[in-house]
């Protein structure tokens, strides 16, 4: 993790086993490598996180995730040159159409939010939406031929493939238009994704409630168009990448081991006992790890068949 004086401490009070955000955030960096790494060897695909137990003035506050911020320093995008916008970061903060590529609301350049996005870099700027607005319009409204021919110049397709496979493996339904970052390395470069806020994964939603759904496929407007048009042999590439990941970081063996190793660490360090001292609502459920692992097996089995049958 980087050197910095500005960190995020994320409370895990809504995660039954205090594991999902930790596993999910770090997993993205195991899956995706920035496509411009030859130009920026220190760029990261997204934030990583470490466990931290927090005390304030000697009072124990519980287990948190110490997280990097997804900002220009992390992803190493190009700085502005005067009034010229180069690198860009937009945070999908809510579902209002544009951030999920379902619609394109009117843009007003004097506002720092548009269509579900908040601008993170560059800020302030007189024209924050001048690039992302026409890109969104292209994804939402272009005809199929135009979309299929040009999308690879406007969005990094390897990133889209990895992101949507990752989101589906975790089943993160809240990360399709919010809890993500849309990023551009430099002026004229294609956009790409980085995830954020992954507490609602691996069989739960953001509240911590169990959702035992394993048989659905998550998408947004961008992914639906990529599949419908099969732009740049997207479907075959999507299927091939899934098979590769299933032999590595998304194999059942590796995912279950990552879950069990994290669980054993927290249990052996008596973190759950200490969490009960801090949070009146915390209830340790010993069979929670069994639920997560059985859910993971069913989810991977469903995706194996669903993705192989895509056409």
Please give a handful of descriptors for the protein shown:
311 residues; alpha+beta; Phosphatidylinositol 3-kinase Catalytic Subunit, Chain A, Domain 5; three-stranded antiparallel β-sheet; five-stranded antiparallel β-sheet
Please compute the radius of gyration using only Cα atoms.
Answer: 20 Å
Helix content: 25-40%
Question: What is the CATH architecture term?
Answer: Orthogonal Bundle
Query: What is the total tally of β strands?
Result: 8
In the CATH hierarchy, the third-tier topology is known as: Phosphatidylinositol 3-kinase Catalytic Subunit, Chain A, Domain 5
Number of helical runs? 10
Mind describing the biggest β-sheet?
5 strands, antiparallel
Strand order of the largest sheet: 5-6-4-7-8
Kindly state the mean pLDDT as a whole number? 96
Helix/strand order, N-terminal first: EHEEHEEEHHHEEHHHHH
CATH top level?
A: Mainly Alpha
- C-alpha end-to-end distance: 40 Å
Domain module tally? 1
Class by helix and strand content?
A: alpha+beta
Stretches with pLDDT under 50, minimum 5 residues? none
Overall geometry comes to globular
What fraction of the residues are assigned to beta strands by DSSP?
5-15%
């Amino acid at each position: 993790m980087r050197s910095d004086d500005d960190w995020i401490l994320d409370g895990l009070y809504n995660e039954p086993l205090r594991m999902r955000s930790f596993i999910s955030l770090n997993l993205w960096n195991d899956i995706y490598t920035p496509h411009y790494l030859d130009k920026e060897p220190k760029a990261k695909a997204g934030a990583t996180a470490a466990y931290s137990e927090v005390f304030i003035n000697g009072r124990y506050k519980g287990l948190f995730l110490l997280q990097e911020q997804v900002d220009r320093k992390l992803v190493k995008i190009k700085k502005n040159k005067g009034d010229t916008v180069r690198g860009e970061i937009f945070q999908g903060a809510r579902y209002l159409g544009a951030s999920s590529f379902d619609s394109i609301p009117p843009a007003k350049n004097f506002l720092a939010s548009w269509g579900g996005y908040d601008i993170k870099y560059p800020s302030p700027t007189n024209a924050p939406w001048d690039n992302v607005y026409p890109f969104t319009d292209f994804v939402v409204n272009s005809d199929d031929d135009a979309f299929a021919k040009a999308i690879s110049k406007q969005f990094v397709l390897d990133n889209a493939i990895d992101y949507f496979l990752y989101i589906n493996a975790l089943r993160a339904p809240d990360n399709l238009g919010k809890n993500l970052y849309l990023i551009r390395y430099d002026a004229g470069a294609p956009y790409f994704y980085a995830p954020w806020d992954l507490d609602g994964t691996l069989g739960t939603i953001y509240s911590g409630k169990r959702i035992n759904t394993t048989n659905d496929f998550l998408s947004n407007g961008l992914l639906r168009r990529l599949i419908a048009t099969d732009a740049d042999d997207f479907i075959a590439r999507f299927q091939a990448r899934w098979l590769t990941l299933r032999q590595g970081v998304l194999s059942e063996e590796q995912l279950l081991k990552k879950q069990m190793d994290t669980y054993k660490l927290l249990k052996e360090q008596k973190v759950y006992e200490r969490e009960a001292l801090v949070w009146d609502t915390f209830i340790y459920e010993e069979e929670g790890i069994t639920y997560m692992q059985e859910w993971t097996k069913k989810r991977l089995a469903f995706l194996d068949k669903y993705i192989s049958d895509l056409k």
